[in-house]
């Protein structure tokens, strides 16, 4: 589904990604771990098409199609979803209206009519129940005054609404207590299936107990320095990142 | 003949049609002398540094409309807030249109300045209030005072609330090649009275219109006044709006100014606090494009202790538009425990757009809380990326962010139908359909 080849990316001439290779197949869950500043969030942003980052070399392709020329919204229409580490506050635009806009813009891009109102409401109800989101929450301004946990839960609610092919969760576990973590993980796991793929970016192993990955990659200094199965995450939890760094130096 | 000379000679003709023995005429005569001495403000005046009336003075305006023009309600319905029932005071080319209006004397007076200035039953009120807060020195205000004859007269007695909001609408039909209008409004809310007013100026053709308006508002003890200015006029219309507000103890006056249209707009909004525990609220949303120009000059004079003022102006400037915000706050020495807040935030969406913003604080008391902040920026790229990553195209995402930026000013609009209407105008101004009713 997703194929990243020798990806180099910079921001203002600072090299951040230095040759990433990654293949994610439909149905798989990949975890990307690594210390602060290793390039995890940059990788997520580059896949989602943030213009601030300049791709110097290499390629990102979704289902065989090179994404380079596509805008962030076109990538979203192709089925890429990024759950943000720091979601943006949009005063005056309710969660419900925001979702209506997002869904109908995606439908428009696919040549479909707007989703009928009753169908939209049904979908919103279904997905908000899945994430145990209170009705009142939906008529609040998007992310405005939300707690860290509410913001993250709202991100996964959006993901559930949009049903992406490839979901990238950037530090979704930060700011979540254990109950919220379980709810969020449950929402993510509902999306798991033969058709979809998920990339979980995280610092800690904690989230991976709930969203069990098929593969774990360690990112260090802009490169994937180690890949393995879920046991690798446990090893990292136990030993920290230093041994990886040392191993890399050796 | 330039516009000043034309106005001075017109004053002689004007005198033929008014009662020269009425005390108001003395006020007019004083006022025309002031205008004769000072003339139109020029860029040399500090307060007019960024707004030039030179082009306006070159136009050969008709000062007195020649005939009454008939308008059909169905053709102009859209310019009214027609979703709710309101009183209406409507002028067509400066002349009162009884056909389009709905006035009242049922417990409150919602009627005409011309009646108030001539009929004996209003004399007492006119003596007490007319031209009492308006400047006797500011040249355009005195020009209006000299020609004051027609406009809206609203008098709300003690403890009264009109049954519905009041709309004041001025239409220009284009019957004159170029028309100058000088409406004069007087609004009085007596003790514990309440009133909501919406004012709009609307030119219906491409012919040039210049309006020099003066509104005096008096809010007595415990009174509550909401005044909404909808400035969405044709691109050939210019407006100088001079509004003067006098407040007494515990009164609350809110003025919202929505500036989207017009060629040149200058708002001189002056609040004078003459009592304690007063709240003055000044809010504005300005969205401009083309070569439009809007200049907000605000003044809040805190003259007594324990009062508050809240100013929040948001501006979005595109193409070659220019904006000015000059916010002056004066806190007198005795006005201790004053809370005065001022905020002016601007977004420039074009390299050729300009905003000049200047806070002016003159604080003579020592126990006060005053804050001011002005920002000029571009749209937040991180926020745009967030919206785009949800599949919302950049243009629509931009509009949503601008809408969000202006939103907190709209929150205090207390007529829901007006809020909806303003939202629609904003969506139209931004040129987008964002998939839901804003």
TrEMBL record, chain A:
SMART domains: AAA (SM00382)
Residue ranges constituting the ABC transporter domain according to the UniProt record: 2-246
Highest taxon in the source lineage: Bacteria
Keywords annotated in UniProt: ATP-binding, Nucleotide-binding
Pfam families: ABC_tran (PF00005)
Keyword Aminoacyl-tRNA synthetase set for record: no
Gene3D superfamilies, A to Z: P-loop containing nucleotide triphosphate hydrolases
GO molecular function: ATP binding; ATP hydrolysis activity
Family statement drawn from the similarity comment of this UniProt entry: Belongs to the ABC transporter superfamily. Ycf16 family.
UniProt-recorded name of the protein: Fe-S cluster assembly ATP-binding protein
Automatic annotation (TrEMBL), chain B:
InterPro entries: Fe-S_cluster_assembly_SufBD, SUF_FeS_clus_asmbl_SufBD_core, SUF_FeS_clus_asmbl_SufBD_sf, SUF_FeS_clus_asmbl_SufD, SufBD_N
Domain called SUF system FeS cluster assembly SufBD N-terminal: residue spans: 23-168
Domain of life: Bacteria
Residue span(s) of domain SUF system FeS cluster assembly SufBD core: 175-405
PANTHER family: PROTEIN ABCI7, CHLOROPLASTIC
Recorded family membership: Belongs to the iron-sulfur cluster assembly SufBD family.
Protein's recorded name: Fe-S cluster assembly protein SufD
């Amino acid at each position: 589904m997703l194929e990243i080849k020798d990806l180099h990316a910079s921001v203002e001439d600072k090299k951040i990604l230095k040759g990433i290779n990654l293949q994610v197949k439909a149905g798989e869950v990949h975890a990307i771990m690594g210390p602060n500043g290793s390039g995890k969030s940059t990788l997520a942003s580059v896949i989602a098409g943030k213009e601030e980052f300049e791709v110097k070399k290499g390629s990102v392709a979704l289902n065989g199609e090179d994404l380079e020329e596509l805008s962030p919204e076109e990538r979203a229409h192709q089925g890429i979803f990024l759950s943000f580490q720091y979601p943006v506050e949009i005063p005056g635009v309710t969660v419900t209206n925001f979702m209506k806009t997002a869904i109908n813009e995606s439908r428009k891009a696919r040549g479909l009519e707007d989703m009928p109102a009753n169908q939209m409401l049904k979908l919103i109800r279904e997905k908000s129940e899945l994430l145990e989101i209170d009705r009142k929450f939906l008529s609040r301004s998007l992310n405005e005054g939300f707690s860290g946990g509410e913001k993250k839960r709202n991100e996964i609610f959006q993901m559930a609404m949009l049903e992406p092919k490839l979901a990238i969760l950037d530090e979704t576990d930060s700011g979540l207590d254990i109950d919220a973590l379980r709810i969020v993980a449950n929402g993510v796991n509902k999306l798991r299936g033969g058709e979809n793929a998920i990339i979980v970016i995280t610092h800690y192993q904690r989230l991976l107990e709930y969203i069990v990955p098929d593969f774990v990659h360690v990112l260090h200094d802009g490169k994937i320095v180690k890949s393995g199965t879920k046991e690798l995450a446990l090893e990292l939890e136990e030993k920290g990142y230093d041994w990886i760094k040392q191993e890399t130096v050796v | 003949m330039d516009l000043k000379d034309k106005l001075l000679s017109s004053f002689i003709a004007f005198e033929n049609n008014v009662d020269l023995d009425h005390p108001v005429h003395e006020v007019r005569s004083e006022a025309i002398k002031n205008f004769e001495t000072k003339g139109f403000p020029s860029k040399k005046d500090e307060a007019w540094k960024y707004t030039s009336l030179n082009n306006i003075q070159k136009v050969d305006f008709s000062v007195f409309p020649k005939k009454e023009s008939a308008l059909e309600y169905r053709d102009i319905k859209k310019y009214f807030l027609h979703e709710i029932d309101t009183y209406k005071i409507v002028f067509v080319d400066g002349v009162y249109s009884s056909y389009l209006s709905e006035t009242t004397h049922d417990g409150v007076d919602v009627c005409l300045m011309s009646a108030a200035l001539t009929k004996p039953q209003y004399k007492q009120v006119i003596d007490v209030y007319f031209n009492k807060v308006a400047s006797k020195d500011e040249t355009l205000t005195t020009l209006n005072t000299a020609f004051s004859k027609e406009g809206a007269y609203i008098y709300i007695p003690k403890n009264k609330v009109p049954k519905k909001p009041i709309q004041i609408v001025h239409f220009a039909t284009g019957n004159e090649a170029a028309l100058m209008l000088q409406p004069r409004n007087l609004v009085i809310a007596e003790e514990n009275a309440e009133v909501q007013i919406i004012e709009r100026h609307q030119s219906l053709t491409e012919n040039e219109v210049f309006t020099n308006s003066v509104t005096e508002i008096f809010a007595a003890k415990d009174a509550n006044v909401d005044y909404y200015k909808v400035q969405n006029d044709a691109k050939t219309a210019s407006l100088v709006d001079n509004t003067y507000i006098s407040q007494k103890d515990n009164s609350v006056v809110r003025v919202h100014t929505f500036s989207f249209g017009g060629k040149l707009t200058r708002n001189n909004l002056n609040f004078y606090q003459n009592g304690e525990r007063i709240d003055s609220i000044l809010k504005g949303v300005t969205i401009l494009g083309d070569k439009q120009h809007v200049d907000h000059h605000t003044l809040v004079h805190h003259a007594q202790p324990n009062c508050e003022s809240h100013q929040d102006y948001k501006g979005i400037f595109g193409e070659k538009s220019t904006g000015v915000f000059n916010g002056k706050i004066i806190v007198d020495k005795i006005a201790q425990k004053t809370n005065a807040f001022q905020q002016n935030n601007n977004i420039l969406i074009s390299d050729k757009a300009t905003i000049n913003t200047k806070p002016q604080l003159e604080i003579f008391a020592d126990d006060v809380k005053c804050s001011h902040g002005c920002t000029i920026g571009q749209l937040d790229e991180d926020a745009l990326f967030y919206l785009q990553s949800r599949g919302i195209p950049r243009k629509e995402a931009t509009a949503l962010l601008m809408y969000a930026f202006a939103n907190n000013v709209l929150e205090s609009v207390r007529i829901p139908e007006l809020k909806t209407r303003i939202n629609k105008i904003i969506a139209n101004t931004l040129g987008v359909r964002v998939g839901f009713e804003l």
